[in-house]
Amino acid sequence: MIITLILEDTTIENALKTFEDLYLKKDYPNALLTLEKNQNEIEPGLWHYNMGTVLGEMKNWPMARFHFILAQNSGYQSPQLLQNQQLTEIALDVERLEKPLGAPDYLIKSALIMSDGILVSLSLVILVVGLWILKKKSSLKRAVVFLLIIASPLVADFWIHSWPRYIVTNAKTIYEGPSVLFGTRGELPAGIMVLTNTKGEWEEIVYPSRFSGWVKKDGLKRLEHK
Prior knowledge:
By secondary structure, the chain is of the alpha+beta class. It folds into three domains: about 10-90, Tetratricopeptide repeat domain (Serine Threonine Protein Phosphatase 5, Tetratricopeptide repeat), CATH 1.25.40; about 105-160; about 165-225, Roll (SH3 type barrels), CATH 2.30.30.40. About 55% of the residues lie in helices and about 15% in strands. Strands 6-5-4-1-7 form a five-stranded antiparallel beta sheet. It has a two-stranded antiparallel sheet with strand order 2-3. A hairpin with a 2-residue loop joins strand 4 (about 195-200) and strand 5 (about 200-205). Helix 2 runs antiparallel to helix 3 and helix 4 (about 60-75) packs antiparallel against helix 5. The longest helix is centred in the middle third of the chain and has 34 residues, at about 105-135. The protein is flat and about 65 Å long. The two termini are about 30 Å apart. The mean pLDDT is about 85.
């Protein structure tokens, strides 16, 4: 895995320098401890990126992917982040395991892609066009219609981001119902992203549908979107 370390912010220079020294010495456990001790002092996106970097070096691919996604969700962007995330997903065979099987899978995957900035951009385009039209011929009715049209992609974006998404950190047994008394139907592999419905301590896998069934909540890490 190709790793590029990124260090920023002179206010935490000492902590990051200690982390960099440990990282370069390949003392990854202590590098992780240094990051964990200074989490509140480091910008969230950068913190998640460096966590993913070290975990990738330790071949903990599921947790590396978890932190790389959270780095993006925190607004952190860099070519190194995208490269490392892609390499991590290749190691986890994500493309094959998360490949849609049917129409519901394709709809969910398309919605996730659209929520990655496309819906917000669409609202901005509609806003610009609406202002231009209203400038030519304004009316209260037209303004209300454009506000509703602009709001629709934003509401959809908010709704999609509210879907419970998890990274599977440990392979899980899939059950036919929310109890170990039900029969099993295979294994949920570590590293993939799943969408679920919650019932107590159990999660029903909604996407990818190839792994439909129920799993215990432990071993799943919730992805939050900021």
